[in-house]
Amino acid sequence: MTEKLTPAQLESALRDIGARHYHNLHPFHKMLHSGACTREQVQAWALNRYYYQASIPRKDAVLLARLPDAASRRAWRQRLVDHDGEREGDGGIARWLRLAEGVGLDAAYVESTAGILPATRFAVDAYVTFVRERSLLEAVASSLTEMFSPTIIAERVTGMLANYDFVSKDTLVYFNARLHQAPRDADFALDYVKTHARTREEQNLVLAALRFKCDVLWAQVDALYSAYVVPGMVPHGVFLAPQADVALAS
Amino acid sequence: MTEKLTPAQLESALRDIGARHYHNLHPFHKMLHSGACTREQVQAWALNRYYYQASIPRKDAVLLARLPDAASRRAWRQRLVDHDGEREGDGGIARWLRLAEGVGLDAAYVESTAGILPATRFAVDAYVTFVRERSLLEAVASSLTEMFSPTIIAERVTGMLANYDFVSKDTLVYFNARLHQAPRDADFALDYVKTHARTREEQNLVLAALRFKCDVLWAQVDALYSAYVVPGMVPHGVFLAPQADVALAS
Predict the structure, then answer these.
(1) Structural domain includes residue A27
(2) How far away is chain A from the Cα of B232, in angstroms, using its nearest Cα?
(3) Which one, of B8, B35, B18, lies nearest residue B162 by Cα?
(4) How far apart, in Å, are the Cα atoms of A87 and each of A94, A111, B62?
(5) Cβ contact, residue pair A222, B223, below 8 Å
(6) Total-model pTM
(7) How many whole angstroms separate alpha carbon A31 and alpha carbon A191?
(8) What is the CATH number of the domain that holds A158?
(9) Tens digits of per-residue pLDDT, B102-155?
(10) Using CA atoms, how far apart are residues B102 and B249, in angstroms rounded to an integer?
(11) For residue A138, what are the domain limits?
(12) Which site among B48, B221, B222 would you substitute to test the A interface, given the most A Cβ atoms closer than 10 Å to its Cβ?
């Protein structure tokens, strides 16, 4: 099909990518939410995901630097505020650190990112590079996974609170703010791509950018699965829980 | 330890990284060489590895562009000749395509890289980015995995010829040239880092660069293992053999 899509058709094609490729479909997330993860696996998830969280404001700053008008830059700037906060201890990165500490990790170790999987670093850095090197339209489109995040957050918070006695509401406070931030950001980005993708070719680039971003998220949980679920596959030098694994499935 | 290493100590520390982190130690390579892979797994290896092969001259061009003197550039230029060849059908990339066709893949499909794992792309692109963004010393040091490649090539060629009836000497011709090219390249790079790492701090950067590169190679076979050995884990849209898997272990 090569005809230009209507804005509604474009949105529908974007949602279809989410329905087939978003990482809520990955076996690791099913384990995480259902209580089938060991404490070590939950820790590995929190530790590796920290690198993603901590890289998001770098990605957003790269994108902000490319936006040509003050209104768009102001809108995008809110993302920096959300992640980096207004003061020490505030913002999404600090809240993710609280989550990591809540599941038993040392904050300084998490912040050092010394124990993350190389595959995590490669996937996250690929995202930052994509936003720097591709067109602005594709860079904005790659953020559109936020269209799908309220669903996974709802599953995650409910599932993790019900299934792990070492996870509390306070540990998961990161997700509270995301439930209203993500849809607001997604609305802006969705409007942007509907307006700025002026040809079918550009619409295809938008769709490919979202697919790329789904791959970035998928590769991160895939690496966790490969290292921490498949026996004997943890690469040298990355995080291992200090004690023997304890299965904490409910 | 913070004292500067002698050149011999630096080389010994580099060889120690290889002995512990080079990808010949990965379970997927043990399977590949021992005949335990299915034809689909061998194809997935050839397909994904093509992206690495095809990216090497881009990496070498980035590095060459940073070398300040004609003599070093001439030495490094030989790598471009080795991989891209002197004419159509010549060079390492063309020979890798022959390998891919030899194990039953369509050359145009392989060249498109449409079926590779996202994790392969992320790891390989991380290598090119590293060579562009880090110091020249680290960029050169990241090539030092070639110190270890003759061993894995010898294991691979012997093992694959003995254990797969769909693999012929002609299929593996890529590796013939590598057996003398890699040591020549490694000697140059090893001399370079011995000469140019003037402090212990710089020597540590050299060691970290080699470790990074081992991670790049390891992550690629790890992704193959996760997708094609662990059941049910092939991500959407990547290569699957057209027929049912046939175990071809001897």
Answers:
(1) yes
(2) 10
(3) B35
(4) 10, 17, 40
(5) yes
(6) 0.87
(7) 34
(8) 1.20.910.10
(9) 999 999 999 999 999 999 999 999 999 999 999 999 999 999 999 999 989 999
(10) 18
(11) 7-228
(12) B222
